[in-house]
Amino acid sequence: MRPEIELTTGDITSQDDLDAVVNAANAQLATGGGVAGAIHKAAGPELYEACKPLAPIKPGEAVITPAYKLPNKWVIHCLGPVYGEDEPSDTLLKNCYVNALRLAEENDVTSIGFPAISTGAFGYPKEDAARIAMDTIKDYAANPADKIKLIRIILWSEEDLEIYKELSV
């Protein structure tokens, strides 16, 4: 059965019906700004302690930790590419989504939430990043493994949501 793909705006740290959320992480898996800062703040200091032995990670890579004080079971941390520096940026960004979905399958995750990866401080153009995200998720959904039933993309603004909606058709 193909997973359902949902697009919404909201706070990624309050998705209490998802098994896992994806952190748009930095290489050291440390608290930072944007999504990483929000996830670390909501999860508590235990999250960073769990991340320390897994760091550093490279662009396109993903690792998994417990979610601690978040309402989810897992946090999957992905390091997206810095646009204009980490190349090939499109392949590295695609790898974030592919590796997160692979880790989700390996850990029996049935529902997962993604933010827009690399579009904040890492400067990836929103439309290009959205296209890569949607193409990768749609490819996965067309040939799913057995476990994931719901993939939700949680966006910060209505403007971002409109970009993704145009690509979801």
CATH fold descriptor: Leucine Aminopeptidase, subunit E, domain 1
In whole angstroms, the N-to-C terminal distance is: 19 Å
What do the pLDDT scores average to? Answer: 96
Largest sheet: 6 strands, mixed
Q: Classify the secondary structure makeup into a structural class.
A: alpha/beta
Named CATH architecture: 3-Layer(aba) Sandwich
CATH class: Alpha Beta
- Choose one word for the global shape: globular
As a whole number of angstroms, the C-alpha radius of gyration is 14 Å
Structure characterization notes:
The protein is α/β, with parallel strands linked by helices and 169 residues long. It has a single domain (4-168), classed as Leucine Aminopeptidase, subunit E, domain 1. It is built from 5 helices and 6 strands, in the order E-E-H-H-E-E-H-E-H-E-H. The chain has helices spanning 34-43, 45-51, 89-106, 126-142, 158-168; strands spanning 4-9, 20-24, 62-66, 74-78, 111-114, 150-155. Strands 1-6-5-2-4-3 form a 6-stranded mixed beta sheet, sandwiched between helices. Strand 3 (62-66) and strand 4 (74-78) form a beta hairpin. The radius of gyration is 14 Å and the shape is globular. The mean pLDDT is 96.
